[in-house]
Design brief:
By secondary structure, the protein is mainly alpha-helical. 52% of the residues lie in helices and 3% in strands. It has a two-stranded antiparallel sheet. Strand 1 (51-55) and strand 2 (58-62) form a beta hairpin. Helix 4 packs across helix 9 (189-198).
């Protein structure tokens, strides 16, 4: 049985990390931290800065030139970053819901026109039978959400139609991020273009970026490691981002699928919603993780250290030129 599969007390866990070449420093502090942060959780954050060695015929992960404090920084900055990401994504979610409700409630649609999918969906892309099925599913789920909601406005008959469905503006608040994405996918091209225009992007970019943010939001909500997360599908990369993002060698036009591209997506949305939004906290977390090390910046998906300034709002420092007298 390997040491990883044996029950080890906290002192023995530290011994194991030391045996695998990790620098411990303050042993008392390290033991204290392991009492409250699972050994495997810290091991997960150490992995990207570790290496695998062949020791006595076994593949063993070792931590040469890696300190326990360094791993703690990665753990805590990931925790901080998840909080900041959730805050920013919430602003985007509220904004998207507002735009969706506005488009579906305007003109001939009216307050309850959203209930007839054939009115506002992409009929060139979806047949009427499919749209009818999706409409029925949506209405069933909406009724269930209403039953579980404590929203006081749902109790007022003036906000409901004759079948007790809420107005579009009230309905929007009952939706999850996933529900919103579904409705956007069904929308006619014209309606989707109206929403995309609000965020200065194409419809393809809008859908690609929102799917990316939904994935990240779920990762944050489940306390997953986001600084080392690898996206299943890389979101559409705007041309002006490319000079700041890490590009894979020997892969034509293949840019990073790490957290850096998520931050550029986030930055694009937020500056359209609130140009004065402060990205300082996000920038500080990333800066602490990178610690002026280009390789660490590459791991997160940035081309170089200065790339971080593009999304943090922190201006690059100009080099001083000393003139000869």
């Amino acid at each position: 049985m390997t040491a990883d599969l044996m029950h080890l007390d906290f002192e023995e866990q530290i011994d194991l990390l030391e045996e695998r070449k990790m620098k411990i420093g303050n042993r008392t502090r390290a033991v204290s931290k392991l009492k409250h942060i699972n050994y495997y959780k810290l091991k997960e954050f150490a992995e990207p800065i570790s290496k695998v060695e062949d020791i006595n015929g076994q593949k063993i992960r070792t931590y040469e030139n890696v300190s326990f404090e360094q791993v703690l920084v990665r753990y805590y900055q990931d925790k901080n970053l998840r909080i900041y990401l959730m805050h920013a994504i919430e602003k985007i979610e509220i904004s998207i819901k507002t735009q969706l409700g506005y488009v579906l409630g305007q003109g001939n649609y009216g307050p309850f026109g959203y209930l007839k999918f054939n009115n506002w969906c992409n009929r060139d892309k979806y047949c009427k039978y499919y749209l009818q099925d999706q409409e029925d599913v949506f209405k069933s789920r909406l009724k269930k959400k209403m039953r579980h909601s404590e929203h006081s406005e749902l109790k007022s008959k003036k906000n409901l139609n004759n079948k007790s469905f809420p107005s579009v503006w009230l309905m929007i608040d009952l939706l999850t991020f996933g529900d919103v994405l579904k409705l956007l996918e069904y929308m006619s091209t014209k309606n989707l273009q109206t929403i995309a225009k609000t965020y200065d992007c194409s419809t393809a970019e809008l859908m690609s970026w929102l799917k990316c943010l939904k994935f990240i939001r779920n990762a944050c909500a489940h306390n997953s490691n986001v600084i080392d997360l690898k996206l299943r599908t890389t979101p559409t990369v705007k041309e002006e981002w490319k000079e700041y993002l890490f590009k894979y060698e020997n892969k034509e036009n293949k840019y990073t699928d790490r957290i850096a591209v998520v931050l550029f997506v986030l930055h694009h949305f937020i500056k359209e919603i609130n140009p004065n939004y402060n990205f300082k906290d996000i920038g500080c977390s990333i800066a602490k993780l990178v610690d002026k090390d280009t390789k660490k910046a590459n791991i997160l998906g940035f081309k170089e250290i200065d790339s971080i300034h593009k999304i943090s709002g922190k201006p690059r420092k100009k080099k001083r030129i000393h003139k000869k007298s």
